[in-house]
Design a protein that fits this description.
The chain contains 19 helices and 2 strands. It is mainly alpha-helical and 393 residues long.
C-alpha cells in the first residue's frame, strides 16, 4: 500500500490552480440560484418513487403474487440504489434547496435508508473536489479503476448485491461488506482492516476528529435503525419490509453502477484541467433524474456551486470549451479500451480530445487561467454548506 503524508501537510503543500471556462457572472449567478421548488421536485420526486415502488411491491406480497412482486421489488431496488452516494452527494453539497433545513432533512433521510455515512463522506468529498485525482489529497477514487463486466459481478448487480466492492475507494459495495464496515465504524475500528478504503477513511478520521465522532454515532444509529426494522418485521410476520428498507439499496444495483463508474474511470491524474480528469455523458431522462443530473459531472466539478437541476444549462453555456459528452455505451467502450491498454502498458494515459473551439489544455500556468472574481469566484470554489468546520479554510 502506498504511503501518503498527513492531510494537514497536504493542505499546506498541494495548491492546485484549476482551469475553469470563462462564463458571464450574471449567467453564473442565475445558474447558481437554489430553489426549494426544484429541489423538492428532485428530492421529493425520488423519495416518492421509493414509496410508490415499495407500496406496489407490498401490495403484490399481500396478494402472494410472487412473480409480479419480484418485478416490482427489482424496480424498487433500482430506485433505492441511487440513494447510495448519489442523492446524499448533491445534498451534501448543500446546493439542492434554498432552505438549509430542507437540505439537511433530505440528506439524513436518504443517508439513513442507504446505509450512507454523510460525515465521513463530507470530509472525503471536500478533499475530492479540492484535489480531484491528485492522490496525495484525493483518494476517494484511486486509479486505475477497472470497468468490470464479469458475469458473476454483473449477476449480483442484477439481483442482490451481497459481496461486491464497486471499485471506488469510498464505496461500501454490497450488503455484507456494508454491514461489516458499519459495524467497524460503530466501534471506531475502520482502520483495523488493511484495505485502501479503510486506509483513506482512517486518514480522514485522523484529520477531522469531530467528523469522526459524528461518524461513530451515525454508524450506531444505522445499526439500530435497520436492526429495529428487521426485528420488527420478523416479529410481526411482515418480513417483506426487510427487503423494502434495509436490503433495498442492494437490490438491482446495475444501473447505478453503469452510470456512476464513468465519472473518472480511465482518465488522467495530477492535472489541473478538469476536462482531462472528469467525464460527462448524455443519459435518457429517467436515468438522468435518478442520477440527480450527475451525468454532467465535468460541469459539476468546474462550477460545483451550481445546483444539479441547472447543470444541463451550464453545459450549454460551456459546450464550446468542453469535450463532447459521451453516450453511456460510448463511455463504457472508451473505458474498456483504456483498461485493455493500461493492462498491457501501465504507463499509458488517455488524453481526452478537446474540440477545435476549446482553449488549449491547461498546464497549470497561471497566465493561462481565466480570471474569476467576486461572486463567480465564490460559486466556483463553494463546496457547500455542509463542509466540515475543520476544512472551511
Amino acid at each position: 500500500m502506498a504511503t501518503y503524508q498527513p492531510l494537514s501537510e497536504v493542505r499546506k503543500t498541494l495548491k492546485v490552480k484549476w482551469y475553469r471556462t470563462k462564463i458571464d457572472p450574471k449567467v453564473m449567478k442565475e445558474l447558481s440560484t437554489r430553489s426549494d421548488v426544484q429541489g423538492f421536485l428532485q428530492a421529493g420526486g425520488h423519495f416518492g418513487l421509493f414509496l410508490l415502488t415499495g407500496a406496489i411491491t407490498f401490495y403484490f406480497w399481500l396478494q402472494q403474487s410472487w412473480i409480479p412482486m419480484c418485478i416490482a421489488l427489482w424496480f424498487h431496488g433500482t430506485v433505492s440504489s441511487f440513494f447510495v452516494g448519489v442523492a446524499p452527494h448533491e445534498l451534501g453539497h448543500g446546493s439542492v434547496f434554498k432552505s438549509k433545513w430542507l437540505n439537511r432533512i433530505f440528506l439524513y433521510l436518504f443517508s439513513a435508508i442507504a446505509w450512507w455515512d454523510p460525515f465521513d463522506y463530507a470530509s472525503s468529498h471536500t478533499y475530492h473536489h479540492r484535489y480531484t485525482l491528485h492522490p496525495e489529497g484525493d483518494r476517494e477514487n484511486l486509479l486505475p479503476l477497472e470497468p468490470n463486466l464479469a458475469s458473476p459481478f454483473v449477476f449480483q448487480l442484477l439481483t442482490i448485491n451481497l459481496f461486491t466492492l464497486h471499485g471506488r475507494t469510498f464505496s461500501k459495495g454490497g450488503l455484507l461488506s456494508t454491514l461489516y464496515v458499519t459495524l467497524l465504524g460503530a466501534f471506531g475500528r475502520v482502520g483495523d482492516v488493511d484495505r485502501p478504503r479503510n486506509e483513506w477513511v482512517q486518514t480522514l478520521h485522523d484529520d477531522q476528529p469531530e467528523e469522526y465522532r459524528r461518524s461513530i454515532w451515525w454508524s450506531r444509529f444505522l445499526l439500530l435503525l435497520h436492526g429495529g426494522i428487521t426485528v420488527a418485521s420478523l416479529i410481526t410476520g411482515y418480513w417483506i419490509f426487510i427487503l423494502l428498507v434495509p436490503v433495498a439499496p442492494f437490490i438491482a444495483n446495475l444501473f447505478s453502477y453503469l452510470v456512476g463508474l464513468p465519472q473518472h474511470c480511465g482518465l488522467r491524474e495530477n492535472t489541473p484541467d478538469f476536462r482531462k480528469s472528469v467525464r460527462s455523458m448524455h443519459l435518457n431522462p429517467i436515468l438522468e433524474f435518478l442520477y440527480w443530473r450527475m451525468n454532467w459531472h465535468l460541469e459539476h466539478h468546474m462550477y460545483v456551486g451550481v445546483p444539479c437541476y441547472n447543470l444541463k444549462k451550464l453545459h450549454q453555456e460551456l459546450a464550446w470549451d468542453m469535450p463532447e459528452p459521451r453516450t453511456l455505451m460510448g463511455a463504457w467502450k472508451e473505458m474498456r479500451e483504456i483498461w485493455k491498454k493500461q493492462k498491457a502498458d501501465s504507463s499509458y494515459v488517455f488524453d481526452t480530445p478537446l474540440p477545435p473551439t476549446a482553449t488549449p489544455e491547461y498546464k497549470g500556468d497561471t497566465t493561462q487561467a481565466p480570471v474569476s472574481t467576486g461572486e463567480e469566484h465564490q460559486e466556483a470554489m463553494s463546496l457547500g454548506d455542509l463542509v466540515p468546520q475543520g476544512l472551511t479554510h
